[in-house]
Design a protein that fits this description.
Length: about 450
C-alpha cells in the first residue's frame, strides 16, 4: 500500500516511527518519538500542511528541550487528510455552509451538497482523535498541543472530555470574540480571521498561493523569516522549512478536494460561538485544565511600517496586473487598490506585502481575546511598536522568556487562559518558522503543569 512508503527523516538528531491505527475501516497515520514510557504529549497541526512531515521540526525541538526526555511525543495527522483517504458520501449529511468565490460570488451549497460527515471537525474529527488515543494507543490522559485546525479538533474533544487534558497549548486560532461585522473590513483591504467560505471552493488554492508567494491579500509569512529562508541554500534546514510553507499551495487537487469536505462543515463564526454555547451540554470555557494560547509576534504589522519598506512602484504593480508577478486572479487588482510595499529585495515577490501581516490581532480595536489578556494598544488597529502607548503597555504587560524565544502577555483576572504567549519573529506558521521558540513555550508550560 502507498501509505507504507511514508517516512520522516531524522530531524535535529531525532528519529520518528510511523504507525497506522485502523478505526472503522480507515488507517489513521501518526508519528512517534521520545521516551516510550514517558508522559504523552499529543501534537496536531493545521490543514494545508503535511500534518506529520511539517510538524517534525517542532516535535524534534520539543524532544531536544532540557526536559524532553521525560515525554513521549505523538504527532497525529488531521483526521482523514491522508492522501489515500476515500471520501464517503452518505447522502444524508449536507453542507452546513455556502461557498464563496472572491470578491463576492456566493456558491450555493448549504443543505444541498452532500458531504462526508467524518470531516466535521466538531464531531467526526474530535471523535477520531479520541479513538486514536484511547482505542489505538491506550492513552487516557496527555498534554495536548494544537495549531490552527488542530485546535478546533482538540477544542471540541477536550470540551467533551476535559479529564483527558493534563494541559493544552493552542496556537494561531481564534477564541470567543470574533465579530461577524469584521468580515466587512475586506472592503478596506483588512483581513481578519480565515476565509472558510472560500476554502470550501476551488478558489482557495490560488488565493493561498498569492498570499504565500506575493504577500497578497496580506502577508502570511513573517518578514524576518522570509528574509532568511527564501534565499537559504537548498537542502538546508532553513530552506526545507521555507519550502514546506511554499508547498502548501501546491498540494494535489485530490488533497484540496479532501480539505473542502472540512470547510463545507465548519465556519469561523460558529467555532467561536461553540466555545461558549452551553446548549450542547459542554463547552471549553467551562473546563479548568491548564490552557495556554500562543500567537506569532508579527500579527497585524502594517506593510508600510516594516523596516526599510518602500511603496511598490506603479509600473511594477501594473506589470503584476498583466501577469508578470506572482499574484494571480483578483489579487492583482488588490495591489492596485490597496497599499503594497517592498520590504526586502528578495527573489520573485517574496519581499512584498499588501496592507498588513497576519489576521489575528491580540490587542486593540479588533482584539480576538479581549476577556483574556491585558490590552497593550487600546483602540489600535495595527501594531505600532514606536507608539508611546504601545511602548508603555508592552513594558508593563509583556515579559521576555527563554532568552527571548518567546514572551508572555499578562492575562486578566478570571481569564480562561492560564498563559498567553507571543512567539518571537513568527507569524501564522509559528511551528515551522520558529520551531525552537514554540517548543520552549510549550515545554515550559507543560513542565510548569506536569
Amino acid at each position: 500500500m502507498k501509505e507504507n512508503n511514508y517516512s520522516i527523516p531524522v530531524t535535529y538528531g531525532v528519529n520518528f516511527e510511523i504507525k497506522y491505527i485502523e478505526i472503522d475501516g480507515h488507517r489513521h497515520r501518526i508519528a512517534e518519538t521520545g521516551n516510550s514510557e514517558g508522559t504523552p504529549i499529543v501534537i496536531m497541526m493545521g490543514v494545508f500542511e503535511d500534518s506529520l512531515m511539517d510538524t517534525r521540526w517542532l516535535a524534534a525541538s520539543m524532544a531536544n528541550h532540557p526536559n524532553g526526555s521525560e515525554f513521549r511525543f505523538i504527532v497525529v495527522t488531521v483526521p482523514y487528510l491522508e492522501e489515500y483517504t476515500e471520501i464517503r458520501i452518505d447522502g444524508n449529511t449536507m453542507s452546513k455552509y455556502d461557498g464563496l468565490k472572491p470578491p463576492n460570488k456566493k456558491i450555493p451549497m448549504k443543505g444541498t451538497k452532500s458531504v462526508d460527515p467524518r470531516f466535521d471537525l466538531e464531531h467526526g474529527g474530535s471523535l477520531a482523535l479520541r479513538s486514536i488515543l484511547i482505542q489505538g494507543l491506550n492513552i487516557t490522559q496527555a498534554h495536548f498541543v494544537g495549531h490552527d485546525r488542530g485546535c478546533i479538533i482538540m477544542d471540541n474533544m477536550l470540551s467533551q472530555h476535559p479529564e483527558m487534558a493534563l494541559s493544552y497549548s493552542r496556537g494561531s486560532q481564534g477564541w470567543t470574540k470574533f465579530q461577524e461585522e469584521w468580515a466587512d473590513l475586506v472592503d478596506k483591504g483588512i483581513f481578519l480571521g480565515p476565509p472558510h467560505r472560500i476554502m470550501a471552493t476551488d478558489a482557495f488554492a490560488p488565493l493561498l498561493r498569492s498570499a504565500l508567494r506575493g504577500g497578497a491579500p496580506f502577508g502570511f509569512i513573517s518578514p524576518s523569516f522570509a528574509k532568511e529562508a527564501s534565499v537559504a541554500e537548498k537542502n538546508t534546514d532553513l530552506r526545507e522549512r521555507w519550502d514546506a510553507i511554499q508547498g502548501m499551495a501546491n498540494q494535489s487537487e485530490r488533497f484540496f478536494e479532501l480539505t473542502r469536505q472540512i470547510f463545507r462543515q465548519t465556519d469561523f463564526f460558529d467555532e467561536g460561538k461553540r466555545r461558549t454555547d452551553r446548549s450542547s451540554g459542554f463547552y471549553i470555557v467551562d473546563t479548568d485544565f491548564p490552557m495556554m494560547q500562543f500567537q506569532g509576534a508579527d500579527e497585524m504589522i502594517r506593510a508600510s511600517d516594516l523596516p526599510g519598506a518602500k511603496k511598490m512602484p506603479l509600473l511594477r504593480r501594473i506589470g503584476g496586473l498583466l501577469g508578470f508577478g506572482q499574484v494571480t486572479g483578483l489579487f492583482r487588482l488588490f495591489r492596485l487598490r490597496f497599499p503594497t510595499y517592498i520590504f526586502a529585495d528578495l527573489p520573485q515577490d517574496f519581499g512584498v506585502i499588501s496592507n498588513h501581516t497576519g489576521d489575528q490581532p491580540y490587542w486593540g480595536k479588533w482584539n480576538f481575546y479581549p476577556d483574556e489578556i491585558e490590552d497593550i494598544f487600546p483602540g489600535g488597529e495595527f501594531q505600532e511598536r514606536s507608539n508611546p502607548t504601545w511602548i508603555e503597555n508592552y513594558s508593563k504587560f509583556v515579559e521576555s522568556k527563554a532568552d527571548g524565544r518567546y514572551s508572555t502577555l499578562k492575562t486578566k483576572k478570571g481569564a480562561r487562559f492560564n498563559r498567553f504567549t507571543i512567539i518571537s519573529e513568527a507569524l501564522h506558521w509559528t511551528h515551522i518558522e520558529r520551531p525552537e521558540n514554540v517548543a520552549w513555550a510549550c515545554m515550559d508550560f507543560i513542565i510548569d503543569n506536569r
